[in-house]
Amino acid sequence: MTPARGPAVVALGGGHGLSASLRAIRRYAGSVVAVVSVADDGGSSGRLRQAIPDLPAPGDIRRCLASLADEASPLGRALEHRFDTGDLEGHAFGNLLLAALAEELGSFGAAVDEVARQVGSVGRVLPATLGPVSLEGLRRVPVPAGALGTQRVFGQVAVQSASGITDLRLHPELPESSPEVAASILAADQVVLGPGSLFTSVLAAAIVPAVRQALQATSAQRVYVANLHAEVPETEGFGAADEVSSLLDHDIPLDLVVCDPSRPCGPGPGRVPCIEAPVGDDRGLVHHPERLGAVLAGIASCS
After folding, report:
1. pTM of the model
2. Residue 124 vs residues 11, 176, 303: alpha-carbon distances, Å
3. Bridge partner list, 134
């Protein structure tokens, strides 16, 4: 259950990182909305997108629904069930359920809302775009004479498997979003970006035009939760300050950054205040929901 009183919080991103932030946010927020990237083209989501071209990638949506589900819901737990034999090998049940409901109900958004209702979700989950999108990354590559040139890579899997990404774009360039996406961000008290893969989760959602414009216009406190470590090869060589700089370079405004002391922000960002607090688990591998929730709640109460 979410608290009866508390800030209205929007969480933005995708993948396991967004799931972690939602498990933290549900502990203190009065209302929760997840705005989720649907650009994944690998694994179960990629297979479903190939079979159903108009289907937005369901995988990150599924993870968020599981994170916000009533803990007593068997269906909520089953969303993450992954088949390991036969024709369904590798598919997550929740992905198949979302795909089936999208066809039955006539829209992916309606399918997401229906699954949320069935699992007793404590918050709303909104796809960042109404339709499927793909990622395009621009990366630095060596060229003769010791200089650096540029190379374009297409698709989330390709971007995730590349290093030296400097610029991320969407195809189509101006995808449509539900009006509820911008409205939620504009009405929020706090917007939490990250943690998660910088380019393929956080920026993949943040650079959606309706999302970026709402982030620039909102009076909400915009907080970036830095990753606990760089992801190889996607952000190989990045520190927390480099993640912040990439967000700013993509015109994503931030008010605060939360960093674990094991990977401090350092002097790099300069333009954005940084709060160092122990938000990782004891092994330093993933963010700890209670620790991260306590820090975010404290920040929200001061805004």
Report:
1. 0.93
2. 10, 19, 23
3. 171
What pLDDT score was predicted for residue 289? Answer: 94
Kindly give the residue spans of alpha helices, DSSP state H, lying in the chain.
Answer: 15-25, 43-51, 59-68, 74-78, 93-105, 108-118, 156-160, 179-187, 204-206, 209-217, 240-249, 289-302
| Tokens describing residue 274 | 């940084």
Our count of domains for the chain comes to 2
Polymer length of the chain: 303
pLDDT digits (tens, 9 = 90+) for 150-188: 889 999 999 999 999 999 999 999 999 999 999 999 999
Residue finishing a domain among 171, 190, 223: 171
Burial of 146 (0-12, 13-18, 19+ CB in 10 A): exposed
| Residue 161 structural domain | 134-171
pLDDT above 80 for 302: no
Query: Does a structural domain hold residue 3?
Result: no
